[in-house]
Design goal:
Structural class: alpha+beta
Distance between the termini: 43 Å
Number of helices: 5
Strand content: 35-45%
Strand order of the largest sheet: 2-3-4-7-8-1-9-10-11
Helix content: 25-40%
Oligomer: single chain
Radius of gyration: 18 Å
Length: about 230
């Protein structure tokens, strides 16, 4: 029988399995000790819809703004995080069925200030790319048409605004999310690992500035679509 670590190695590879195991161990000792590794992905905005126009009509896709606070209790993140995102001009598109929340996608039209670590992600080329993050579908709807309808609506919105690319970071420990993005045509363009011990944060990245130690202000990573 496989041990838990062997299963992790099979799923994530040796290095990521090792990093994830270290993260779990030190995080149990102290919640402010973490190892977070991201893969950076670039994805062209598709001109081909995932669904025929006749399908997915049971889902209502709408943009949620900072004034739509009645929607916030349905979201899987705390109110302080929602405010943090809207304060940096992030935009949110959500899927509803029979007035019930089924999922959302967030994006920023410019630089995104990460809320999990101290880091600024700048998508390039400017005015042709956006940074998307926190793609979430409620568990019972993950085999439904909620995500395809949400994604098609967002892509149509981006095409209308002459956006050619969407860039994102995905946890290297989340193989399911990586597979989902790659099925949609996303390509890996780099990585960034953050080792956090209290207020001290060390970043090791494939992008400049490559190595960055901080106690307050995090680094800025300029991530090009191609």
């Amino acid at each position: 029988m496989y041990s838990k670590f062997q299963l992790l190695v099979h799923e994530l590879g040796w290095l990521n399995a090792f990093l994830y195991s270290i993260h779990r161990g030190i995080n149990k000792l102290h919640r402010r000790c973490r190892i977070i590794k991201y893969y950076l992905y670039s994805q062209p905005i598709s001109h081909k819809a995932l669904l025929p126009e006749s399908r997915g009509k049971q889902f209502n896709i709408q943009e949620i703004t900072a004034s739509d606070q009645q929607c916030w209790p349905d979201f899987p993140c705390p109110e302080r995080v929602i405010r943090y995102r809207f304060n940096q001009h992030a935009r949110c598109f959500a899927a509803y069925k029979n007035n019930q929340f089924h999922g959302y996608i967030w994006y920023t039209p410019g630089t995104y200030q990460e809320d999990e670590v101290r880091c600024f992600f700048e998508p390039l080329p400017a005015n042709e790319s956006v940074w998307d993050f926190d793609v979430y579908i409620v568990p019972h709807a993950r085999m439904s048409l909620a995500f395809p309808k949400l994604w098609d609506t967002l892509c149509a919105h981006h095409r209308k605004n002459n956006i050619q690319w969407t860039l994102s970071r995905i946890s290297a420990f989340n193989k399911e999310s990586i597979r989902a993005h790659e099925r949609l045509g996303a390509k890996r363009v780099g990585s960034a690992t953050f080792i956090c011990v209290g207020k001290c944060q060390l970043m090791l990245s494939s992008h400049a500035p490559w190595i960055y130690i901080s106690f307050k202000q995090g680094p800025r990573l300029r991530v090009a679509a191609k």
